[in-house]
Amino acid sequence: MRAADAYLGSMDAIPLSPPRRLSLPVANRWGAGEMNVLDFGDAERPVDLVFVHANGFNARTYRSLLAPLSGSLRIWAPDLRGHGRTSLPTDPKGRRGWTDHRDDLVALLDALDGPPTVLAGHSMGGTTALLAAAERPERVAQLVLFDPVIWRRWTVLAFQLPLLDRMASHIPLVKSARRRRAVFDSREQAMAAYTGRGAFRGWPEVMLADYLADGLIETPDGLVLACPPEWEASNYAAQSHDPWRALKGLDRPVRILKGETGSTCHVPERPRGLPRTTVETVRGGTHFFPMLKADVARDALFDASV
Q1: Do residues 188 and 205 lie in contact, with contact meaning Cβ atoms separated by under 8 Å?
Q2: What is the structure's pLDDT at 11?
Q3: φ, ψ of residue 85 in degrees (nearest 5)
Q4: Residue 180: its pLDDT value, please?
């Protein structure tokens, strides 16, 4: 029996119950606060895997992806700055890249005890994991990145120019994020608004419910998005960081899985000058294949962590 079959055979016996919540103090040049971390698996063992969510989502969104692995692995899944239940301050003004997310994740890596961990993530979370690993390679065993946001090399260079920075507000994703509805009367109303639409098309109901569980905050005015539209838009607009430099300088195995359609990852399947990087296309997969083809994502995480 393959190692991967061991957890697949026991998945039905593992309840998808809420993981433990941890609060990690973070203080850096971007401000101080608490990072919310979901802790899956045996609390007595070292952390095997750190998984980082995509822009606009939160760690709990991936509970049904990660929980079946908790019988064999201990997993930390943080809420990034401006997302979920993390209370770190946000300031979109003048923001040009994801170095704030990188530095927050570095603080999490520094807080870990035990051997180097597998670092993984989806979309912006994958890119943030890559940037953090380049800063703390000794804390990382390897990386598994699900459709990370890695533009073509010339595009990354262009985003570093002041003119392109000023044009970021015209990016379609930036404009659509700013128009996003931010307040709902009830969770049922939000569920109905998202089901089968846009980025959430085809999502399992349990995953959408998990997203909303930590994606909405109760206020006197109603249920408000934990990730404000302006902050989500800022993440789309702030693209001056350089994932190619991180890939080139990182002496750790990097496995990239990207969608066949709608991918945000422009690293080719045979990348030049990156001998430690492997790239695979998920056939029939989109940018959201971790939600729609969770078994593919889960197998990749398990194989890297055992």
Answers
A1: no
A2: 47
A3: -105, 10
A4: 93
